[in-house]
Amino acid sequence: MTGSNSCDAPQEKCGVFGAYLKNRNAAPTAYYGLFALQHRGQETAGIVTSDGEKLHKIIGRGLVNTIFTKQKMKRLVGHLAIGHTRYSTTGGARLANAQPINCVAQVGEIAIAHNGNLVNTHELREELEAEGETFDPSENSDSHLIARIIARHIDEGPRIAVQKVMERCVGAYSIAVITPKQIFGFRDPWGVRPLVLGKHEDDYYIASETCAFRAVGAKFVQEIEPGQLVTIDETGYVIDQIVPVQKESLCLFEFIYFARPDSKMYGRSLYSARKQMGIQLAYERPAIADLVVPVPDSGIPAALGYSLASGIPFAEGMMKSRYIHRTFIEPDDEMRKLGVRMKLSPLEDNIEGKRIVLVDDSIVRGNTTGEIVKLLKDYGATEVHVRITAPRIEWPCYYGIDMSVRRKLIAALKTDDEICAHISADSLGFLSLEQAHLAVGKPDRGFCDACFSNNYPIPIPGRLRKKMTRIPSLPQAGQTQPALMGTK
Ligand code: SF4
């Protein structure tokens, strides 16, 4: 994959953040927290604060630093805040998709920020409607259903409200909630998406990743375990196990690509896990070459590991523009090619006449990797051997990552040799699933690796499964094969 925000990268759906500060306005803290979580969603962002009585909200399209102007921040008063960054998998960057989502409850207004995806959305919506809930056409996401369940029960306290969510919602969810007087965060009983608790003096924080704590001067306290709720108010924080852990299943892809390398999960630095993946990859998929070159920025730790283990020198082969983020236009093939060249600029002096091992973190749809190989060859590389620190992605993700349709995954359609030919590489090697787990080095902890293994920890309803895994028959001779959607 091509660094954060490269087009073929699988996209994390969201980052969540919450702050309960003793004596300060929480909005600036939420801003910095979201800024640190920008990699988890760049299409919309939002902050909701509470002054103890009323909620105040700003949401917008685009990056955190463009949405929350100084003027707008003045409206976000109060010492409690939650925030959200979103990558939307459908509907583009529509403001209607932005979170936090507000809902009216007996205790006053509440708002929720959700990272993950339910697998029983359809059934749950029907049930809630049968119970008398009505939804506006814009309230069409799983997050709206969760918000409604919390709103119904929050007057009985967060424990009951979250218990009701856990009884009825099936899927992946790490959620931050704000009420006029409290914030709370909880994680689904499988713990697919991360959620952590932080602290600085009498101020408490929740976040998708530990990197957000550094940004606000806080320290990591602990992970919120699967099925747990953390409630924060003026007395401090309390953690409750609302339902038993089902089967601990933290997303393996967080370790490979999604999370920031300066975050920790299961106590393991993502940077060092990725470097170790590069080391294992060098042993498992060796290559004869002159240089090891990362796809910046996400391929750097693994390329360093590959270089270390193989003895092949590490070199930067291209520079990544610091100013390109996601574009909101649907690229055609020509624009996609130009997009890669806008983002990545080759360093000719380093690559000309060289045999290169190109280290990247994943191949999802296969487009962008091919463009990068071509770019290196156009600027003089004599051979490009692609090495990928993820196993083959052959199965959809139903738990909140933008890889939901099997027919769009190149590894579901082609063999290694066919993918190698498709991306015009001289050789191609993926890290095996076994080696990826070894590199993470937490044999006593549970992971979801379903997009690699087809082994889904949370059962997927048959109807959804059938829809997402159907692969139409390959085109007959003379027919044009439809372009693989997406961009890498
Ligand atoms: S299916 Fe893949 S991307 Fe989705 S949660 Fe599991 S490991 Fe992560």
Structural summary, described in words:
- The protein is of the alpha+beta class and 488 residues long.
- The chain has two domains: 14-248, Glutamine Phosphoribosylpyrophosphate, subunit 1, domain 1 (4-Layer Sandwich); 268-469, Rossmann fold (3-Layer(aba) Sandwich), CATH 3.40.50.
- It has 18 helices and 23 strands.
- It has a seven-stranded antiparallel sheet with strand order 3-2-4-1-10-9-11.
- Iron/sulfur cluster is lined by residues 192, 251-253, 397, 399, 401, 448-451.
Brief overview, please?
The chain is α+β, with helices and mostly antiparallel strands.
Looking at the structure, the CATH topology of the largest domain is Glutamine Phosphoribosylpyrophosphate, subunit 1, domain 1
Roughly how much helix do the residues carry, as a percent range?
25-40%
Instruction: List the domain count as a whole number.
Output: 2
Determine the strand fraction and express it as a percent band: 15-25%
What would you give as the CATH superfamily of the largest domain?
Answer: Aminohydrolase, N-terminal nucleophile (Ntn) domain
CATH architecture term of the largest domain:
4-Layer Sandwich
Unreliable sequence segments:
1-7, 474-488
Bound molecules: iron/sulfur cluster
Mean pLDDT: 90
What spatial form do the alpha-carbon principal axes imply?
globular
Please give the CATH class of the largest domain.
Alpha Beta
* Radius of gyration using CA atoms only: 22 Å
Side-by-side strand order of the widest sheet: 3-2-4-1-10-9-11
